[in-house]
Here is the input.
Amino acid sequence: MKGRVAHICSLLPPARVYADVGCDHGYMAKYVLSHGLCEKMYITDLHAGSLKKAERLLEREIDAGRCVPVLCDGLSGVPEPCGFVLIAGMGGEEIAKILERDGIPARFLLQPMKNSDKVRRLLVSGGARIERDYTFSEGDGPRRYYDVILGSASGGDSYSEKEFRFGRDNVRGKSPDFLLEMREELQKTEERLMGRLGERSRAKLEALREEYREIIHEVEGIVRHD
Ligand SMILES: C[S@@+](CC[C@H](N)C(=O)[O-])C[C@H]1O[C@@H](n2cnc3c(N)ncnc32)[C@H](O)[C@@H]1O
Here is the structure.
C-alpha cells in the first residue's frame, strides 16, 4: 500500500466497531482488520460493482463474521452505531450530506476530494470537535493534494472563516504540503490568467512583477541585516 491510502491508514485508531463508507476496493477496511484495529467492520457502498470488489478482497473476514458488507447510501443501512467511521475519496458535499442525514459519528476520519469547507462547516455547526485538519500530498511526478479531517462528535469547536476555507492546521502553519499547494495553485492561476491577456497587458504585468520582486528582495535584505 502506498500514497494516499497508506497515509490515511496510518492515522486510523482502534475502535470496537468500524465503518468504511464508500469502501470501493476495500483496501482501507482490509488494513484495519488485518492490523486488529477493530472487532467488526461494516463496509458500505452505493454501487453494487464497487462493493463486490471489496467483498472479493475481504472474503475471509466476511466468512468469519468480522466484516459485514452493506449496499446502501452512507451509513443508512448500518444496523448499529459505529465507534469510528471512515469516509474517504468522496466529494465534500456528498460527505456533508451523509453526516447531516445519518448523524456525526462518535469518532471519524474524513478525506474529502473537494469542498472540504462544507464538511468543516457541517461538523462545527453540529457540535463536533476537530482534532486534526490538514493537507498532505503524494506523488513523485505531479503532486496531488488531499485534505484530511479527524475528530469526534462532541466537545464543540470554533473556526475562523479562514480556517473553514483552508483547514485549521494548515492556517496554523502545521503543513508544509499546504504551502506547496498554495504556491502551485497561485502559479497555475497566474499562468492561466496571463494566457488570456493581450500582448501589451502581459508585458506591462511582467514588468510590474519584476519591479516589485526587486523591491521586495531589497527590503528583505535590509530587514535581515537590521
Ligand atoms: C473514489 S471511491 C473511494 C474509495 C475509497 N474510500 C478510497 O478512498 O480510496 C468513492 C466510492 O464511494 C462510493 N460512494 C459515493 N457516494 C456514496 C454514498 N453516498 N454512500 C456510499 N458510497 C458512496 C462510490 O460508489 C465509490 O465506490
